[in-house]
Amino acid sequence: MLRRFLLIATVLVVALDAATIDAAEKTDYAKVKDILKAHCFRCHGVRKQEAGLRLDTAAATIRGSDNGRVVVPGQPADSW
Fold first, then answer.
1. Model-level pTM?
2. Region 50-65 average pLDDT
3. Contacts with 79 (C-beta within 8 Å, 6 or more apart), sequence order
4. DSSP, res 39
5. Which DSSP symbol is given to 75?
6. How far apart are CA 58 and CA 75, in angstroms?
7. Which of 15, 27, 44, 80 has the highest CB neighbour count under 10 A?
8. Cβ contacts of residue 67 below 8 Å, gap of 6+?
9. Are 76 and 18 within 8 A, CB to CB?
10. What is the pLDDT of residue 10?
C-alpha cells in the first residue's frame, strides 16, 4: 500500500512540477485527478481523510496532511 502511494505521489509531483517548469505545457490537477481517484480517494477523499490527507482537490493536495505537506510543487525530492 505504501509503495502504491509513493508511486501515485511521484506521478502527482511530476505533474505539478511540470506546471511550474513550462507554463505553455502546463499540466493541471485535472489531468492527474483520474489517477488519484482510481487509487487514493477511497482513503484520502471527500468522505474519509486518513492522516488528515485529502487529495480530491489541488488545494487540499498542496495543503498536505496532519504530518505536513506531502507534495511540494517544483521540489519532487522534498515531496512524499
1. 0.62
2. 90
3. 9, 10, 13, 69, 70, 71, 72
4. H
5. -
6. 16
7. 44
8. 51, 52
9. no
10. 67
Instruction: Name, in order, each residue with C-beta under 8 angstroms of 9's C-beta and a sequence gap of 6 or more.
Output: 70, 71, 79, 80
**Domain locations in the chain as residue ranges:** 2-70
Ranges of H-type helices in 1-80: 2-21, 29-39, 41-44, 58-63
Say which residue the cell 474519509 belongs to. 48
Determine the average pLDDT of the residues in 36-55. 93
Which amino acid appears at position 23 of this protein? A
Residue 71 DSSP symbol: -
The CA R_g of the chain, rounded to the nearest whole Å, is: 12
Map grid coordinates 480530491 to a residue.
56
Confidence of residue 26 (pLDDT cuts 50, 70, 90): very low
Grid coordinates given for 43 = 482513503
